[in-house]
Amino acid sequence: MKFVVTQVPVFAEKPHGIDYSLTLHGLDGERLVGFDNAHPVRGQGRGDPQEHRHRLCTVWPYEYSDATTLLADFWNMVDAVLRERGVLP
Q1: 49 inside domain
Q2: Which residue in 9, 52, 75, 85 has its CB near the most CB atoms, within 10 A?
């Protein structure tokens, strides 16, 4: 599990004033879950909001609303992936 969160000036690509990356990695280093705004999602142009989520090998846009919801969404996805992999009952 790795969380990197930095306050940044508000601008088009970081409209909420934070740069964030929340990730869960497997024992082999593979990213299993990730929520971040480090790069644009394919199909979006530069200057568009960059929020997105990774689930295994798939990437979807993510609509950031606030930090509380971001954390809840992250932990819900972590629980789902760990259940699918038999780590949680």
Answers
A1: yes
A2: 52
